[in-house]
Write a structure and sequence with these properties.
Distance between the termini of chain B: 34 Å
CATH class of chain B: Alpha Beta
Oligomer: heterodimer
Low-confidence stretches of chain A: none
Shape of chain A: globular
Distance between the termini of chain A: 48 Å
Largest sheet of chain B: 7 strands, mixed
Strand content of chain B: 15-25%
Helix content of chain A: 25-40%
Strand content of chain A: 15-25%
Helix content of chain B: 25-40%
Low-confidence stretches of chain B: none
Structural class of chain A: alpha/beta
CATH class of the largest domain in chain A: Alpha Beta
Number of helices of chain B: 10
CATH architecture of the largest domain in chain A: 3-Layer(aba) Sandwich
Number of strands of chain B: 7
CATH superfamily of the largest domain in chain A: Thiamin diphosphate (ThDP)-binding fold, Pyr/PP domains
Largest sheet of chain A: 7 strands, mixed
Structural class of chain B: alpha/beta
Chain lengths: ~350, ~250
C-alpha cells in the first residue's frame, strides 16, 4: 500500500475500506448490495492480511447484529450497505444506539423507495439523521463530498463513535462509492482504542458486564433516554462540521451536501460569471446538523437547498432559518443527478426575486 | 457437616421470574453447572434472546449480551469472531430460534460458528401470552389456534434438530427433555458436551431442551410434565442427531 503523501487513484468504496483498516478496524460484517460491493470485497481480500476478520452474513439483518456482538465485545467494527439494506439494518441500529455501542455504518445511497434503482440518491437523509429505527436516538452522520473527504472522515467517525459510545454513519451515495479519485491515505495507524471497560470480554477481576437495551421499569427507561438526550446535546454542541463559502452578502445561499454540493459548486461558478452573488453552506456533519453555520448570518438574500431527494435536508434548513429568510428547494430523484445548468436556472430566478420553490 | 447441594457459581443469587412449573430454571441451572464444571465462568459470554428468557442475563454470573428477537446466533458470531478464545453461548426459545430467527441459526450452523446454542422448545410463545409457536403441535390450542393447530390452515410443527443436523457446520445436535430426574441428568451431560465441542473448536453445538409452559398450556406443573412426555416426545424424539467422535 502507498506511503504517506503518495496519491493513489482509488474507487470510493475501496478507499473508505482501506481508510477504515488504517484507522484500526479489524472486523467487518456485510452483505452484498449495489452500489457498495467493492467495499466488502476489498475487506474480504485485505482484512485477513492484517489479522482481521471478514464475515459475509446471510442478510443485512444478521450483519448488523454481528456488528452489535462485535462492538459489545470491544472491537472497532464496521458494516456497509446501500439504502434498502440500511432499512433492514435499522432494527439493529436502534439496539446499537440504545446499548451505546460504537461502530461505523457506511451507506452508499441509491434511489428509492422500495427496491428503487442502483443510481445515486440522497433520499436516506431522514433515516440517517432522524434515528431511522424505533425510539428516540441519533447517529453521528457524515456527508462527505469526495473520496478524499470520505477517507479523512473515516478515522474521525470511528473516534467519535468511541468517544460518545454511539454508532456513526458515513452517508455517501452511488457516485462517491463508484467514482475513482486521487486520494492520500494516512499511514497505518497504531490505534490504541480507548479502554472499553463495559465490553463483554469475559469477567475481568470478577466484574461482569452486560450489554442490553431492555428496561422493563419505565422510570429506568426514561433515565436511559435522558442520558442519551444529554449525550446528543453534547454532540450537537461540539461536533458540528461544515464548509461555508462566500455566504455573507450573497443574494442566494445554496445549501447542499455530498455529491450534490460538488454539482452546486459548478453551478455557483456559472452564476458568478453572470455577476450573481452566491454563497454555499455545505454540511459535513448531517447529524448534528450544522445549525451554527446559520445562526450568526446577517446579510443574506435567500436560501436554495439542492438535494438528490424530494426534499429532506431542506426541513432542517427551514427549522434553523425559522422564517428569517425564504428557503427554496430544488431536487432530483430516482438516481438523476442535478445538472449545474438547471441549478443555475433556479439561482437566476431567485436572484431576480422570483419563485419560492 | 458436608455440603451436598449448593447454587452453582455461574448462577446469580437472584429470584427468577419464571412461572411455577416452568423448566427454564432447571435448564439455567444445568448450563451454570456445566460452566462451573468446565471452569469457564471467567471466559464465557452468554447471549440472551427475546421471550421468557429475555432476562437470562440477570440469572447468570458470566458476561452477557441481550440480542434482538431471533438474532442471538448473529450476535454470538460477532462476539466469537472478535474473541475466538472465549466461550459463547446463546439461550433461545422456540419463537426466537425456530420462527423469527431461522435464518440466523441456519447460517450460524452452516458457517460452523464455534458457539453453543441452548434451544428451549415448549411448543408455545410464553412471554407474549400463549400464541402458536412454530413448534406448536397439531391439535394444540393456543390463543392464535383457538380451535387447535390444523396442518392445512396453520402449517406443520417444525423439527429443528432434524433440520440443523443436515448442515455440515453443525458438530453436535441433540434433543433432551427437562421432565424427569433421568432426562434432566441426560440434559446436563448434553449441555456440558455442547460446551466441550465448542472448546475443541469442532463447530456449532445445539442442545434442544423440551420444556414446559404450564401457564400457557393451561395445565398444572405435574400435568405439564406428563403432557411433555405424552404429546411432545412422539413428535420431537429425544436423542443425539449428530455427535463428533472427539467428545464422549
Amino acid at each position: 500500500m502507498c506511503m504517506l503523501g503518495e496519491l493513489l487513484l482509488m474507487k470510493g468504496n475501496e478507499a473508505v475500506a482501506e481508510a477504515a483498516i488504517r484507522a484500526g478496524c479489524r472486523h467487518f460484517f456485510g452483505y452484498p448490495i449495489t452500489p457498495q460491493n467493492e467495499l466488502p470485497e476489498y475487506m474480504a481480500r485485505r482484512l485477513p492480511e492484517v489479522g482481521g476478520v471478514f464475515v459475509q452474513a446471510e442478510s443485512e439483518v444478521a450483519a448488523i447484529n454481528m456488528v452489535y456482538g462485535a462492538a459489545g465485545a470491544g472491537a472497532r467494527v464496521m458494516t456497509s450497505s446501500s439504502s434498502p439494506g440500511i432499512s433492514l439494518k435499522q432494527e439493529g441500529i436502534s439496539y446499537l444506539a440504545a446499548s451505546e455501542l460504537p461502530c461505523l455504518i457506511v451507506n452508499m445511497m441509491r434511489g428509492g423507495p422500495g427496491l428503487g434503482g442502483i443510481q445515486p440518491a440522497q433520499s436516506d437523509y431522514f433515516q440517517a439523521t432522524k434515528g431511522g429505527g424505533h425510539g428516540d436516538y441519533h447517529l453521528i452522520v457524515f456527508g462527505p463530498e469526495s473520496v478524499q473527504e470520505m477517507v479523512d472522515l473515516t478515522p474521525l467517525a470511528f473516534d467519535l463513535a468511541d468517544r460518545y459510545r454511539n454508532p456513526a454513519m458515513i452517508l455517501g451515495d452511488g457516485i462517491l462509492g463508484q467514482m475513482m479519485e486521487p486520494v492520500e491515505l494516512s499511514e497505518m495507524l497504531d490505534v490504541q482504542l480507548p479502554p472499553k471497560e463495559w465490553a463483554t470480554t469475559g469477567r475481568s477481576g470478577g466484574r461482569r458486564h452486560v450489554v442490553s437495551s431492555l428496561y422493563l421499569d419505565s422510570s429506568e427507561l426514561e433515565k436511559l433516554n435522558k442520558r442519551l438526550q444529554d449525550k446528543y446535546l453534547e454532540i450537537m454542541r461540539t461536533e458540528q462540521r461544515w464548509e461555508s463559502l462566500d455566504v455573507e452578502g450573497a443574494e442566494v445561499v445554496l445549501v447542499a451536501y455530498g455529491t450534490t454540493a460538488r454539482v452546486v459548486k459548478s453551478a455557483m461558478n456559472l452564476a458568478r460569471e453572470e455577476g450573481i452573488r452566491v454563497g454555499l453552506i455545505r454540511p459535513i456533519t448531517l447529524w448534528p446538523f450544522p445549525t451554527k453555520a446559520f445562526e450568526s448570518l446577517e446579510d443574506v438574500g435567500r436560501f436554495l437547498v439542492v438535494e438528490m431527494s424530494s426534499g429532506q435536508m431542506v426541513e432542517d434548513v427551514r427549522l434553523v432559518v425559522n422564517g428569517r429568510w425564504p428557503v427554496s428547494f430544488y431536487g432530483r430523484t430516482g438516481g438523476v443527478v442535478p445538472d449545474p445548468k438547471d441549478i443555475l436556472a433556479r439561482i437566476r430566478e431567485l436572484a431576480r426575486g422570483g419563485g419560492t420553490r | 457437616m458436608k455440603q451436598v447441594f449448593k447454587r452453582p457459581q455461574a448462577l446469580s443469587d437472584t429470584v427468577m421470574h419464571y412461572c411455577p412449573g416452568c423448566t427454564h430454571g432447571i435448564v439455567h441451572r444445568l448450563v451454570a453447572e456445566a460452566i462451573d464444571e468446565l471452569g469457564i465462568l471467567d471466559r464465557t459470554i452468554g447471549v440472551a434472546s427475546v421471550g421468557c428468557s429475555v432476562l437470562a442475563y440477570e440469572y447468570f454470573e458470566c458476561d452477557f449480551q441481550e440480542a434482538a428477537h431471533g438474532r442471538a446466533p448473529a450476535v454470538a458470531t460477532g462476539i466469537k469472531r472478535v474473541l475466538p478464545d472465549r466461550v459463547v453461548f446463546t439461550y433461545q426459545g422456540d419463537g426466537d430460534l425456530a420462527s423469527i430467527g431461522t435464518a440466523e441459526i441456519i447460517h450460524a450452523a452452516t458457517r460452523g460458528e464455534k458457539i453453543t446454542v441452548i434451544f428451549i422448545n415448549n411448543a408455545i410463545y410464553g412471554m407474549t401470552g400463549g400464541q402458536m409457536a412454530p413448534t406448536t403441535l397439531l391439535g394444540q390450542k393456543t390463543t392464535t389456534t383457538p380451535r387447535g393447530r390444523l396442518a392445512e390452515y396453520h402449517g406443520q410443527p417444525i423439527r429443528i434438530c432434524e433440520m440443523i443436523k443436515e448442515l455440515d457446520g453443525a458438530a453436535y445436535v441433540t434433543r433432551v427433555a427437562s421432565n424427569s430426574p433421568r432426562n434432566i441428568a441426560v440434559a446436563k451431560r448434553a449441555i456440558r458436551k455442547a460446551f466441550q465441542v465448542q472448546l475443541l473448536g469442532l463447530g456449532l453445538s445445539l442442545v434442544e431442551v423440551l420444556s414446559t409452559c404450564p401457564t400457557n398450556w393451561g395445565l398444572t406443573p405435574v400435568e405439564s410434565m406428563k403432557w411433555l412426555e405424552e404429546k411432545m416426545m412422539p413428535h420431537y424424539p429425544l436423542g443425539e442427531f449428530k455427535s463428533p467422535g472427539e467428545v464422549k
